[in-house]
Design goal:
alpha/beta, Aminopeptidase, 2 domains, 4-stranded antiparallel β-sheet, 15 helices, 14 strands, about 20% strand
Length: about 475
């Protein structure tokens, strides 16, 4: 009856967590600035009897909430950062709440709240059954910047986990049997010599010329990289005025590949391109790694265990009103985009707009999709299970205003509660560890690493880009 009690408690308390998710959706915050969301989750967990340690990895909004003692130690990952420019109301037409403001177009208002719901429900059952073990909720900052969990990992907070679970809002219910790409984010800063571009251009040494030559070199490099690799960039400083030879310019690159080794090799080659551009323009260059996340290691043992919870989790249905909202929203999506979204691995085998069936699709195992996430770092430290649940209509892509609308709607909230139930039920099985499921998951995890060890992709000297506190004025 224990699992029945877990789902019963979660059903009885779902309004509380729906309100929590809605508050975070209504107050979107960008990475490393999530003070409202972080504080709200911490308050909720502390009021429920969890011990909270904040400021993990020198990130003020990152925290760990813990309950219980001893082994096994099971973690659940949560996120709460939003995306720039995706402010949107819960309407089927484009209707920003704040023009160009941030919005939860990736559903992290749901992602973190589901984890909070799951661990609090588990605490209730652990107390009732005097069940040994430790559960943890990880409040992870700045996933959209692909670095929050790396700073946490560098601080060692995942090292003693026996397993960890996570999920992501999506357009189908599926186990995440695919891998996401490794990534390095690196910014190059060129320094030259300023001059009047009309009167004395020969005296200048243009840092912008160096940036542009580097980008040309990087574009030629694309021809000579492994299939599936990605090189994309943004000029972050192009000078101040056309008639001033810029002495400062910078460009920010994302490098993606199937695994960490490939990305590090690509990084070495790109640095040589930057150095060549500096030599050609008689400028100097320095660089800084902003993030360096790993590819994800799917754990089929844990994913199958999550899939087995579907029956115990209970029915998952949508109303006619929700179906209508979904269809109206899809009318705003370009047909070509709609077709592409439906063929994405995260859509699995979904057959209808709001498909409530659950899929455990092995077709994508061993294959890599184009996105990246710092959850990859955690999957290299402990066995990780991951699912997706329906929080938006099939055809809606994350990082769009349509996604923001969905993730603030009752559709998103239902998908969140469903994911929370599956994570709570799975964690209960892991705490019981019947049939040695933890040992099986660990054996698979060790085999998937093929002897390689985790080393944070962000160098030790790089600090999180947290907002600087303004100095308090001294009154005299």
């Amino acid at each position: 009856m224990s699992k029945v009690n877990i789902t019963k408690w979660m059903d009885e308390n779902k309004a509380k967590f729906a309100d929590l998710a809605k508050q975070i959706w209504e107050n979107p915050e960008l990475g490393y600035n999530e003070s409202f969301a972080s504080s709200l989750q911490i308050k909720t967990l502390e009021e429920s009897g969890f011990k909270v340690t904040a400021g993990i990895g020198d990130v003020p909004t990152a925290f760990v909430a813990e309950y219980g003692t001893g082994k096994p130690i099971i973690g659940i990952l949560g996120e709460f950062d939003a995306l720039p420019g995706l402010s949107q109301g819960v309407t089927p037409d484009h209707n920003p709440i704040v023009l160009d403001g941030p919005g939860h177009g990736c559903g992290h208002n749901l992602l973190g709240t589901a984890g909070v719901s799951a661990v609090i429900a588990l605490k209730e059952i652990m107390e009732a059954e005097a069940l040994p073990g430790t559960i943890r909720y990880y409040g992870c900052a700045a996933e959209e910047l692909l670095s929050g969990k790396t700073f946490m990992a560098r601080a060692g907070v995942f090292d003693d986990l026996d397993s960890v679970l996570t999920w992501h809002p999506a357009t189908s219910n599926t186990t995440a049997n695919f891998s996401m790409q490794a990534l390095t984010a690196i910014e190059f800063y060129f320094s030259g010599r300023t001059a009047h571009a009309g009167a004395a251009p020969h005296l200048g040494r243009s840092a912008l010329d160096a940036v542009e030559l580097m980008n040309v070199g990087a574009n030629y490099l694309r021809e000579h990289v492994l299939d599936g690799s990605r090189i994309h960039y943004q000029i972050t400083n192009g000078g101040l005025a056309p008639n001033v030879v810029p002495d400062k310019a910078s460009v920010y690159y994302f490098l993606r590949g199937a695994n960490r080794k490939q990305v590090e090799e690509l990084e070495e080659r790109l640095i040589k391109v930057a150095q060549g551009a500096a030599m050609m323009t008689e400028t100097s260059v320095r660089w800084e790694i902003k993030s360096g996340c790993y590819e994800t290691l799917p754990n089929i043992t844990l994913n199958e265990l999550m899939y087995k919870q579907v029956e115990a989790a209970g029915p998952f249905t949508f109303t006619e009103e929700e179906e209508k909202f979904a269809e109206q929203l899809l009318q705003t999506v370009e047909p070509s985009v709609l077709a592409g979204a439906k063929s994405h691995p995260m859509s699995a085998n979904a057959r209808k707009t709001l498909d409530t069936d659950f899929y455990h699709n092995m077709e994508y195992f061993g294959k890599t999709m184009g996105g990246s996430s710092d959850v990859g770092d955690v999957s290299w430290i402990a066995p990780m299970g991951q699912i997706m649940t329906v929080c938006a209509p099939l055809g809606v892509q994350v990082h769009t205003w349509q996604a923001t609308a969905s993730f603030g709607s009752s559709i998103g909230l239902k998908g969140m509660h469903y994911a929370a139930k599956i994570m709570a039920l799975t964690t209960y099985d892991l705490l019981k560890n019947e049939d040695g499921i933890l040992e099986k998951a660990k054996a698979e995890y060790l085999a998937s690493k093929q002897g390689a060890e985790y080393k944070p992709g962000i160098p030790a000297g790089v600090k999180p880009p947290v907002p600087k506190k303004e100095a308090t004025p001294v009154l005299g």
